[in-house]
From TrEMBL:
The keyword Secreted applies. It is found in: Secreted. Belongs to the glycosyl hydrolase 17 family. This is glucan endo-1,3-beta-D-glucosidase. GO terms for molecular function: glucan endo-1,3-beta-D-glucosidase activity. One of its GO terms (cellular component) is extracellular region. One of its GO terms (biological process) is carbohydrate metabolic process. It comes from Picea sitchensis.
Length: 472
């Protein structure tokens, strides 16, 4: 997202839907708010004129489940601010710096000036060289990429930091010529990937990719594509070559990359997601942009990667991700969505809540909402709490009984009330869950209901039945 190349993510097309595979079936009652997850990173861009100072950002990040940040330059103020915080930093080098790093002396000086003075106090875990260079179309720049990586690694080895700090480069999904089904994933013949993969394998560095289901949805804006992109219940897709089933586009994209590497003989290189995200605000013409969809994608993504479920081809495997991005950045060019990918606003309040703030105690798992975490600032705009379509009747009854037992006015869903019809457990439970959520200060934990509730910006009111809300 720091380059103008975004069509790359559209290369994953939605396969034929065959099987119904709902995402996020409960793996036990009760929500566990993500603590410090080693898989969870966020991109920290600074293309704004109203962003907080790095020292304030460091304190903010420490209060969340975020364990690492990808930054887009070796800014000494940021590197110093994150000293002794325990937050890992992936330090970026821009595309226009790559040519100079083809000289070993330049690479050595870069490491000496930008890395050595800050370690070990600052936990620098990697160097991200350029962004989507292979998809740039610049043949000279492409030829300079691997020598720059090699020189930086050599310079790190000379100061005994090569084991701690790995160098790699992020790629657009468009480096794949084939991506569906996932088992057919192949790199474009326009790129000779073997030298780069040999280098990454030799030094134990990851292959970095920028998958954006959001852009893939924009190229095929249908309801079934949206559910597949958002990790929401959908028919899923089936890979006839492997017999594997896919319930979300993110896993399909990663497995397509894995298949491409496997085809060339590389199965022992980790895949790191350098960028992925979903905008919360956009222009009317931008399909799929909404607060509800941003909450769904990033929230479900976080649950997915921290569950250690892996992907169908890489099961039970932690996938390291960096969500784009930490803040809404008001100086980014392009459509409105480009300035609204942030999890937080410039004033450090949440743009919306996906459960990132760290809880203060574990608490028991119960059918009732979790309330042991900190009070979280509500999302912007009107938001309602509704039951997930996958929630079973027993869970919904527990939710209904709990909410109505907490001084919530449940008369509207009693016989003769404006919300009595339809007389279904899902309808009545949703009304009560939303009433509880609104009365509890719109803390997202109060809509969890043991992972059977979810937030939406779509008003569930109908006819004379009005669902309460607070306009933030």
């Amino acid at each position: 997202m720091e380059t103008i190349v975004k069509v790359a993510a559209m290369t994953i097309l939605l396969p034929l839907f065959i099987h119904c595979i709902p995402f996020g079936e409960n793996r036990g009652r009760g929500r566990t708010l993500v603590e410090h997850s080693q898989a969870l990173g966020v991109n920290y861009g600074q293309t704004g004129d109203n962003l907080p100072p790095p020292s304030a950002v460091a304190k903010l990040v420490q209060s969340t489940a975020i364990s690492k940040l990808r930054i887009y330059g070796a800014d000494p103020a940021i590197l110093q601010a994150f000293a002794n915080t325990g937050i890992g930093l992936l330090v970026g080098i821009s595309n226009d710096q790559i040519a100079s790093l083809n000289q070993l002396a330049v690479a050595q000086n870069w490491i000496k000036n930008n890395i050595v003075p800050f370690v070990p106090a600052t936990d620098i875990i990697g160097i991200s060289v350029g962004n989507e260079v292979l998809f740039s179309g610049d043949g000279v720049l492409i030829s300079q990429l691997l020598p720059a990586l090699q020189n930086l690694h050599t310079a790190l080895a000379e100061v005994s930091l090569d084991r701690q700090i790995k160098v790699s480069t992020p790629h657009a999904m468009a480096i794949l010529s084939t991506s569906a089904p996932p088992s057919a994933g192949r790199f474009s013949e326009s790129f000779d990937m073997k030298p780069l993969l040999d280098f990454l394998q030799k030094i134990g560095a990851p292959f970095m990719i920028n998958p954006y289901p959001y852009f893939a949805y924009k190229s095929d804006p249908t309801d079934r594509t949206l559910a597949y992109a958002l990790f929401e219940p959908n028919q899923g897709s089936y890979d006839a070559n492997t017999g594997l089933k896919y319930s979300n586009m993110f896993d399909a994209q990663l497995d397509a990359v894995y298949s491409a590497m496997k085809y060339l003989g590389y199965t022992d290189i980790d895949i790191v997601v350098a960028e992925t995200g979903w905008p919360s605000v956009g222009d009317p013409s931008e399909a799929g942009v909404s607060l509800q969809n941003a909450i769904a994608y990033n929230g479900n993504l976080i649950k997915h990667v921290t569950s250690m479920a892996g992907t169908p081809m890489m099961p039970n495997r932690s996938v390291e991700i960096y969500i784009f991005g930490l803040f809404n950045e008001d100086l980014k060019p392009g459509p409105t969505s480009e300035r609204n990918f942030g999890l937080f606003k410039a004033d450090m309040t949440m743009a919306y809540d996906v459960g990132l703030l760290r809880s203060q105690s574990a608490g028991p798992s119960t059918a009732a909402p979790r309330t042991d975490g900190p009070v979280i600032a509500p999302p912007t705009g009107k938001v309602w709490c509704v039951a997930k379509p996958s929630a079973d009747e027993n869970s919904l009854k527990e939710n209904l009984d709990y909410a109505c037992g907490q001084s919530i006015d449940c008369k509207p869903i009693q016989q003769g009330g404006p919300c009595y019809l339809p007389n279904t457990m899902a309808s009545h439970a949703t009304y009560a869950m939303n009433a509880y959520y609104q009365s509890a200060g719109r803390n997202s934990l109060s809509c969890d209901f043991a992972q059977t509730g979810t937030l939406t910006s779509k008003d569930p009111s109908y006819g004379g039945c009005v669902y309460s809300t607070v306009n933030a």
